[in-house]
Amino acid sequence: MAPISSSVSHFFKLSPFSLLKLSHSHPSSPKFPSSPFSVRCANQNDDGGDDAKKKRLSNQSSWEAKDAEGRDYLYRLGKEADNMNIAVGQRAGIIDDLFAGNFLGKDSDIVFDYRQKVTRSFEYLQGDYYIAPLFLVNAVCHIVKNYITHLLNTKVPLILGIWGGKGQGKSFQTELIFQAMGIEPVIMSAGELESERAGEPGKLIRERYRTASQVVQNQGKMSCLMINDLDAGIGRFGNTQVTVNNQIVVGTLMNLSDNPTRVSIGQNWRETDVTNRIPIIVTGNDFSTIYAPLIRDGRMDKFYWQPNREDIVNIVHRMYEKDGISKDEVIKIVDTFPNQALDFYGALRSRTYDRSILQWIDDIGGVENFGKKILSRKKDNNLPVYTPPEQTVEALVESGYSLVKEQQLIMENKLSKEYMKNMDD
């Protein structure tokens, strides 16, 4: 990883608890519901005597708990529109054990953990990766400013827009920073910004934002909402149609920027319903296609990411380091194929596997038997061991020329012009 300036490294040393004002509430505990509740406890010394004691369902029941407005728990759940909190009545400890039972274990809802896990962890990021210093400074500064905005006497934009050329590692570099800072983010893509039902994508963004807030409140970890390829979802290209969902998504992001701690997903507002401020990071290739008021200064910080030659060499070197490729050899590869995106150099390594994979298929029994062999591998477990190819500069350069040839064919033929002859140049 690149050397980090002392000011930035200081933030890594901070515990998340030192940056956040965490609530002591936890939704899975009957004693600490998600919003401030005061539980009425009846005892023999109460004025109501035996009548007050009879009104208690049990010592563990939460049905009589009152919120800040004096309304009980069931009333609150009923008022929240589209409430899907089915785990309230299915998890042991939330209601009386008489209703939860022990025959299915502690939790009746066996898929609860899987349904609730919408955040992203980075166990697959094994090894040592390079983070470009300029990228690091911009992303870390934005995240930290949003977590300490109550200490700053200035307006802090909620959204950071990272834009630039295709395949330059915008998302991957951001994920590396999340891993380094111990952030558990909620990540969305442009494919989730459209739906056959009007308003669904906007509601989804608000739900994901609130989910990230719950990570901060309940787990004591920093979180972030990241939307990849935002311009592909809400950008305007040529004569493409503007849908209601496009407008609602833009409006939702603008509203989050203006009111980051008051986020409704359809339920009635409560004075105690305050959401933690969660920084938002969006990526894209061309932000000029996005509705201008959304990307204005004050709502969105913009960062143009174009790695220089030093960044490319360092990133590619870390990519090939485990293959025994030296930095001088990486420089030779980069100079052989200049003006290529970072994903091009990753594709080189992938292309070198083709020949060894074809040989492995022949060892299995050929293409005709591949499906049967691969699907029955658990029964027979007699597949030959696959040996990755030894990476050499010559093999990587050969793969590079093959990829460049394919790029040139696409640009020269432009078959789309033949299929759509009425298109303007």
Automatic annotation (TrEMBL):
Primary subcellular site in the record, as a coarse category: plastid
Keyword ATP-binding: yes
UniProt domain Ribulose bisphosphate carboxylase/oxygenase activase AAA helical: residue ranges: 309-407
Gene Ontology CC entries for this record: chloroplast stroma
Pfam family, one: RuBisCO_activase_AAA_helical
Subcellular location: Plastid, Chloroplast stroma
Record GO terms (molecular function): ATP binding; ATP hydrolysis activity; ribulose-1,5-bisphosphate carboxylase/oxygenase activator activity
Domain ATPase AAA-type core: 162-306
Origin superkingdom: Eukaryota
Assigned keywords, A-Z: ATP-binding, Chloroplast, Nucleotide-binding, Plastid
Family to which the UniProt record says this protein belongs: Belongs to the RuBisCO activase family.
PANTHER family xref list: PTHR32429, RIBULOSE BISPHOSPHATE CARBOXYLASE_OXYGENASE ACTIVASE, CHLOROPLASTIC
Protein function: Activation of RuBisCO (ribulose-1,5-bisphosphate carboxylase/oxygenase; EC 4.1.1.39) involves the ATP-dependent carboxylation of the epsilon-amino group of lysine leading to a carbamate structure.
Protein name (database record): Ribulose bisphosphate carboxylase/oxygenase activase, chloroplastic
Source species: Senna tora
